[in-house]
Amino acid sequence: SPPGLLLLTSFFLHMEEGHASPTRLVCDNRLIQKYIGEAKDMEKRVGQCQALPALSCPIVLPLVDVSLQQWKSKSNETKRQEILCDLALLVGAVVGAQGQVTQECGARQLSQLHRHANSFLLLLQTFSWEAGPWEPGCSPRSMEQTHVTSIFLTYRQLVQGKLRFFFHDLAKDLCK
């Protein structure tokens, strides 16, 4: 079963009257640890692909480093918007790289990464807050890269950092 399916299934099993309740995903710390583990595995596997060439057309990746002090000062909605922007840019980078990577091993890993990142993107778009639906068109801090492995590194850092912190912050309110 595709890994993104678990994420979406666990999400849909915990919906209330039209409002997405991220409770299980947020309250069960084992799930985010599982996604961090999967991100590390994908990064390791793409590193084992033989002779991945540099991308001829650079891709734009979000800068996903996070200052805990700044992070704590943001509202949950602001955090969600920031992660959505990062994920949208990351998914775009994966698609751009997929168009350039013909080597089977790299293409297979990019396809898996696309499913994972897109699942998180769809999931966070459906979390309901007062602020309403997510509007694309944000411009996160970014950098250009020509190495396929940097996409996987960025994804792992995003899941391990902002996404994990975001779920932790939500858990304070949802998991009493």
From TrEMBL:
<dbReference type="GO" id="GO:0038163">
    <property type="term" value="P:thrombopoietin-mediated signaling pathway"/>
</dbReference>
<dbReference type="GO" id="GO:1902035">
    <property type="term" value="P:positive regulation of hematopoietic stem cell proliferation"/>
</dbReference>
<comment type="similarity">
    <text>Belongs to the EPO/TPO family.</text>
</comment>
<keyword id="KW-0325">Glycoprotein</keyword>
<dbReference type="InterPro" id="IPR019767">
    <property type="entry name" value="EPO/TPO_CS"/>
</dbReference>
<keyword id="KW-0372">Hormone</keyword>
<dbReference type="GO" id="GO:0005179">
    <property type="term" value="F:hormone activity"/>
</dbReference>
<keyword id="KW-0732">Signal</keyword>
<keyword id="KW-1015">Disulfide bond</keyword>
<dbReference type="GO" id="GO:0005576">
    <property type="term" value="C:extracellular region"/>
</dbReference>
<dbReference type="Pfam" id="PF00758">
    <property type="entry name" value="EPO_TPO"/>
</dbReference>
<dbReference type="InterPro" id="IPR003978">
    <property type="entry name" value="Thrombopoietin"/>
</dbReference>
<feature type="signal peptide">
    <location>
        <begin position="1"/>
        <end position="20"/>
    </location>
</feature>
<keyword id="KW-0964">Secreted</keyword>
<dbReference type="GO" id="GO:0008283">
    <property type="term" value="P:cell population proliferation"/>
</dbReference>
<dbReference type="GO" id="GO:0070374">
    <property type="term" value="P:positive regulation of ERK1 and ERK2 cascade"/>
</dbReference>
<dbReference type="GO" id="GO:0005125">
    <property type="term" value="F:cytokine activity"/>
</dbReference>
<dbReference type="InterPro" id="IPR009079">
    <property type="entry name" value="4_helix_cytokine-like_core"/>
</dbReference>
<protein>
    <submittedName>
        <fullName>Thrombopoietin</fullName>
    </submittedName>
</protein>
<dbReference type="InterPro" id="IPR001323">
    <property type="entry name" value="EPO_TPO"/>
</dbReference>
